[in-house]
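Supplementary Methods, section 5.1.

A reviewer requested that the exact input to the structure prediction be made available. We therefore reproduce it here, unchanged from the version used in the analyses.
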Amino acid sequence: MTEPPIGGPTQGGPYEPNAGAGQAQPGTAYGPDAGHAQPGTAAGPDAVRMDKDRERAERARYDQEEPFEGPLHMLSQAAWQVVLLTGIASLILGILVLIWPGATLVAVGVLFGLYLLVSGVFQLVSAFGTHKKTSLRVLAFLSGGLSILLGLLCFRGPMQSILLLALWIGIGWLIRGITQTMAAISDKGMPARGWHIFLGIVTFIAGIVLIDSPFQSIAVLTLVGGWWLIVVGIVEIITSIRIKGRAKDIPQTV
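The structure derived from this sequence is encoded token-by-token as follows.
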């Protein structure tokens, strides 16, 4: 005789309401997906929409961040800007020298006096601090004292400073011309030996002329210096434009 299934209604027997408890009911989810929205429910499209909005916000934030700039690219960008500013400054200074040569000489004379004072102070400090030999101490002390004395003379008037500046340049050219000519004559293997001898002689003659006629010579040098600054400024501006064009070829991340 076959026994009826447990938990189910039997013919003529009482009905058990909890029959079949523990068995999966149709349409009920168990396991890892239990409690989660199933596809086709109301929560599914909202979750997908939120994920897309989050990805879109992260992508927008990434696009707003500045890209990485490599050191070579940064150096190339700074190089042409520095050369351009230097060229503009040289051009403006050269124009000012040609427009106001007298005021330029006065300003140069004052700067020359300040240079003599500062260099003299440093030489005196070195005479008492850095040199060990007595002869070097005495030489540095005399050189520093003479430099300070000449610097003070420059502030007595613009003519004194211009005169000292011309004599200073003339003596420097005279010594340089002699040493350069003698070095080229003594060294037969020097490259471009003839040009060095010629340049040494020209420098020597220019030093003599500057010492003999300091005021007229320094005025001519001022005009030459003004035109030289203008030429240098134009060349540097053109160079900066070319550097800028080459800098565009360098990748940003390099």
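The mean pLDDT is 75. These observations are discussed further in the main text.
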